[in-house]
């Protein structure tokens, strides 16, 4: 509850502050202060010190799974603000309002990590999504961004309609006539037509939200068209929060009848892995390549839904941390360049050794190379699938897709160290020492989590 209330309140503070802040740099420091306060409050709640005693009538359930994810989300957002907070000034004049919308998204994230009823699931999804529609098109000078915002809004509205219909069918079909996911908890046996239709609609709508294939087509355009700093947030904190909600809903309400819907998850997972990886290979723009690779990572996170066991829960949290840190890090490198194409990375190892070194760590983690958090996270989710014991071919297919991902990630590494710079491209790259140290800190965290995954996983059993 600490995170939900404080993130909403700080969003209001940032909104009102837009009237009083005179310097464009001031909102960044207020936002950093706000995220530190929210992170501290969330940790205190985890340790048993909630600030607010609100009777939610059981509609919210604050457990270690949700609170640990909140901490991961807030830490990643803090890193994003520290690395690229100044880039909000390049979007437009309403810097404080952009940060305000980010805090409202974090309020939705906090609800999605702790909802216990379908009504709160719907509210959490909408509180998370609506500010993102605005942020996607926040750069009014960018026609591609305006188009991406409209497409994202239309697809989001459509998927929300599917979700509402699914919720209505689940509500009408369960014997208790309840919205509580604990009460829905369907036992073994064949589903009625109403419940089966509601389950499929909920699955499809959530697949839309996490940009899983074949419901992914809005993702690359929205990610590519949005301002890069917004894309970094959308592809990490917002995306993984939707996965946490997906896992929470299906493990609690539909876990006992997993065999009846697992095949659908298998199809979605295989399609997501294939489409995301194969399409990313042919991209010229690094930003668009990362957009398609985000879809492939959604395929790996889908393994948590496929397995629904304790290792899957651990793996999903670890993947949330590994994927978010690496993606925020590589986007910080991309944003520092003037050319987002692969050619723009040519010779970066000579021009900016520190920038190139950090980029290598981030790309290796996204590929899943040992000693990085990305490898350990992939190992956890695939091990969860093996423990589940069904469709083992899917694990082999995922390993092949991980190998395919090395093709496009290593293209960037090759460009940085084995190609000569292109004249006139990225000639005047300048990064501050503090920026360099933050990149190295992010890279160090990725290696540390790769060697010691217990730094995240063990908190589940605190």
Automatic annotation (TrEMBL):
**What are the subcellular locations of this protein?**
Cell membrane; Endomembrane system; Membrane
Q: Which Pfam families match?
A: Proton_antipo_M (PF00361)
Q: Which GO terms describe its molecular function?
A: NADH dehydrogenase (quinone) (non-electrogenic) activity; NADH dehydrogenase (ubiquinone) activity; quinone binding
Chain segments annotated as coiled-coil in the UniProt record: none
- Specify the superkingdom: Bacteria
Q: Chief location of this protein?
A: membrane
Residue span(s) of domain NADH:quinone oxidoreductase/Mrp antiporter transmembrane: 117-404
Q: Which UniProt keywords apply?
A: Cell membrane, Membrane, NAD, Quinone, Translocase, Transmembrane, Transmembrane helix, Transport
Ranges annotated as spanning the membrane: 6-22, 29-52, 64-83, 95-112, 118-138, 150-171, 191-208, 229-249, 261-282, 320-342, 354-380, 392-410, 437-461
Q: Write the Enzyme Commission number(s) for this entry.
A: 7.1.1.-
Biological process, per Gene Ontology:
ATP synthesis coupled electron transport
Q: Does the keyword Transmembrane helix apply?
A: yes
Give the NCBIfam families listed for this entry.
NDH_I_N
Q: Family per UniProt?
A: Belongs to the complex I subunit 2 family.
Matching PANTHER family, A to Z? NADH DEHYDROGENASE
SUBUNIT field? NDH-1 is composed of 14 different subunits. Subunits NuoA, H, J, K, L, M, N constitute the membrane sector of the complex.
Protein name per UniProt: NADH-quinone oxidoreductase subunit N
- This protein's encoding gene: nuoN
């Amino acid at each position: 509850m600490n995170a939900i209330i404080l993130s909403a309140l700080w969003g209001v503070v940032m909104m009102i502050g837009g009237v009083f802040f005179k310097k464009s740099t001031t909102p960044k420091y207020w936002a950093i202060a706000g995220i530190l306060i929210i992170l501290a409050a969330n940790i205190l709640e985890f340790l048993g010190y909630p600030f607010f005693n609100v009777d939610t009538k059981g509609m919210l359930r604050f457990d270690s799974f949700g609170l640990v994810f909140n901490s991961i989300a807030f830490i990643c957002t803090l890193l994003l603000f520290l690395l690229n907070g100044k880039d909000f000034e390049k979007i437009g004049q309403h810097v404080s309002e952009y940060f305000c919308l980010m805090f409202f998204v974090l309020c939705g994230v906090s609800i999605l990590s702790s909802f216990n009823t379908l009504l709160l699931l719907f509210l959490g999804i909408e509180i998370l999504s609506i500010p993102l529609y605005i942020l996607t098109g926040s750069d009014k000078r960018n026609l591609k961004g305006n188009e991406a915002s409209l497409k994202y809004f239309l697809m989001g509205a459509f998927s929300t309609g599917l979700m509402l219909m699914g919720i209505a069918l689940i509500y009408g079909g369960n014997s208790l006539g309840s919205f509580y996911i604990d009460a829905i908890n369907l036992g073994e046996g064949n589903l009625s037509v109403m419940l089966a239709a509601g389950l499929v609609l909920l699955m499809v709508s959530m697949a839309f939200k996490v940009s899983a294939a074949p419901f992914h087509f809005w993702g690359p355009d929205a990610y590519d068209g949005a301002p890069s700093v917004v894309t970094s947030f959308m592809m990490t904190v917002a995306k993984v929060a939707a996965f946490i909600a997906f896992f929470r809903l299906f493990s609690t309400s539909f876990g006992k009848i997993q065999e009846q819907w697992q095949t659908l998850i298998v199809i979605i997972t295989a399609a997501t892995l294939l489409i995301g990886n194969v399409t990313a290979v042919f991209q010229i723009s690094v930003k668009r390549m990362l957009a398609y690779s985000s879809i492939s990572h959604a395929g790996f996170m889908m393994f948590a839904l496929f397995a629904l066991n304790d290792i899957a829960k651990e793996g999903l949290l670890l993947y949330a941390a590994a994927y978010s840190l690496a993606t925020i890090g590589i986007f910080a490198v991309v944003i520092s360049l003037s050319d987002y194409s692969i050619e723009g990375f040519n010779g970066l190892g000579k021009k900016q050794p520190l920038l190139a070194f950090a980029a290598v760590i981030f790309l290796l983690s996204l590929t899943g190379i040992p000693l990085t958090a990305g490898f350990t996270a992939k190992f956890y989710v695939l091990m969860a699938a093996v423990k589940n014991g069904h469709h083992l071919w899917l694990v082999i297919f995922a390993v092949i897709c991980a190998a395919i991902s090395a093709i496009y990630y290593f293209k960037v590494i090759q460009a940085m160290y084995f190609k000569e710079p292109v004249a006139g491209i990225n000639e005047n790259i300048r990064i501050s020492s503090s920026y360099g140290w933050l990149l190295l800190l992010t890279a160090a965290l990725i290696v540390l989590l790769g060697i010691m995954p217990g730094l995240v996983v063990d908190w589940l059993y605190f």
